Amino acid sequence: MSPLRKTFNTIVVLLLIAMVISYALWTGQRPVSLYLSDLRIQLTVNDGQPGERGNLLGIQPELSPSDYQSREHLRRKLAAYLQQARDKGLINSKTIVVLPEHVGTWLLASGEKDQLYQSTTLKEAMNWLSVSNPLQFLHALIQAKGRSRIDDAYLRMKAQAMADDYQALFGGLAKTFGVTLVAGSIVLPDPSVNDGQLHIGRGPLYNSSVVFGTDGLPIGQPQRQLYPNFTERNYIQPAPTAELNVVDTPAGRLGVLIGSDSWYPGNYAQLNKKGAQLIAVPAFVVGNGLWSKPWRGFRSASTPAEVSLKPGEVSEGEAWRRLTLTGAEPGSSAQAGVCVFLRGQFWDQGSSGHSFANRHGSTGVNQISDDQPRHIAHLINLWL
After folding, report:
1. Close Cβ partners of 37 (under 8 Å, ≥ 6 residues apart)
2. What mean pLDDT value characterizes the chain?
3. Cα–Cα distance between 155 and 135 in angstroms, integer?
4. CA 373/CA 377 separation, integer angstroms
5. Is residue 129 over pLDDT 70?
6. What is the pLDDT of residue 25?
7. The pLDDT value given to residue 332
8. What's the Cα-to-Cα distance from 330 to each of 87, 103, 237, 255, 364, rounded to whole Å?
9. How far apart are CA 90 and CA 85, in angstroms?
10. pTM metric for this prediction
């Protein structure tokens, strides 16, 4: 080999080494902003009179990708909401706080690069996620399950950090404010609670919710979603045979139904048998303006024969109010419940849903109406 050729090869190798080192250094850079998005929150529903039995307090947050820059960042925002609720006299030792579906799932964006938060589409953001964590992503892709292995890998690659953040964040908020907290939901591989700690497994992904007590520790096992919709089933495993948990809280026995699990009469029948007095429904409807559009039906592998409502017969919002909580047919023996939606703009993925509460089957005025201010958070309070 000629000296010139050797020199050229050496330069190429050095350039490649420099590029690899630069890329490794770039993936390790994680700048964090101290900026918090809009902290406004409005007490939209405050039904009943304060008493000794406690209250159901739903928080419909207004969140964006930037709120998930770090666990501490999100904690500060949610703590600001809770502090405003406390200042209004809505928090006591028997308060059950309910947060929305997938409020924990978006922790997959925590600790990432600015390019992810500044992306214009969810697809672009997930591309940045994989490029910024190449080895983690490849390892997760090898272990991925389901029809959409890439979507599975995005969540699986950060599952351990997400589980740790989820417990530290929501368990910490429950302890700090002395409340029972239904921590919305989070998508994790085969989650379980052992010795007071949330653990992940190596199995399929499940959309699950954990209830934290006033001591900051989980109460019982994670509640898995039984019937995710057809789109989610590409990477989230259904759990139709999973037990519906009912946990004891200072305000009464509480059951949790995730999202459209609250549409199934059989689920209420199970909760009745277990003596559920209160029901929490963390929910999330993807799509701007979808709340007023025709209902799309159950969109899962199971459609209950007891429900006569047909797709397109009513709006999405009306379907939720008819099928969910203590007004659901054939009926729930629970005295009260609250359904709370996640709101905000996650890149190009918008959201819909107006949170509501009811007692003994009547929603009455206990809901957020279309004329309420948008793009701010809402409190839905029901005194028991």
Report:
1. 62, 63, 64, 66, 67, 77
2. 88
3. 14
4. 9
5. yes
6. 43
7. 83
8. 39, 30, 27, 17, 19
9. 5
10. 0.89
Residue 88 tokens, joined: 């209004």
CA distance 237 to 234: 8
Burial of 6 (0-12, 13-18, 19+ CB in 10 A): exposed
The residue assigned the tokens 């109460």 is 219
255: Cβ contacts below 8 Å, ≥ 6 apart: 244, 245, 246, 271, 274, 276, 278, 279, 280, 334
Tens digit of pLDDT for each residue in 53-62?
A: 999 999 999 9
Instruction: Report how far residue 92's alpha carbon sits from residue 126's, in angstroms, rounded to the nearest whole number.
Output: 40
Domains by residue range for the chain, with CATH: 44-383 (3.60.110.10)
pLDDT at residue 14 tops 80: no
| Angle (CA) 293 298 301, round 5° | 150
Would you say residue 215 has pLDDT above 90?
Answer: yes
How far is the CA of 40 from the CAs of 60, 67, 176, 347, 348, in angstroms? 11, 14, 21, 21, 23
Question: Measured between alpha carbons, how far is 28 from 371 in angstroms, rounded to an integer?
Answer: 46
pLDDT in tens, 147-194: 899 999 999 999 999 999 999 999 999 999 999 999 999 999 999 999
Given pLDDT bands bounded at 50, 70 and 90, which one contains residue 12?
very low
Q: How far apart are CA 95 and CA 180, in angstroms?
A: 6
- CA–CA distances in Å: residue 217 to residues 181, 246, 257: 10, 16, 20
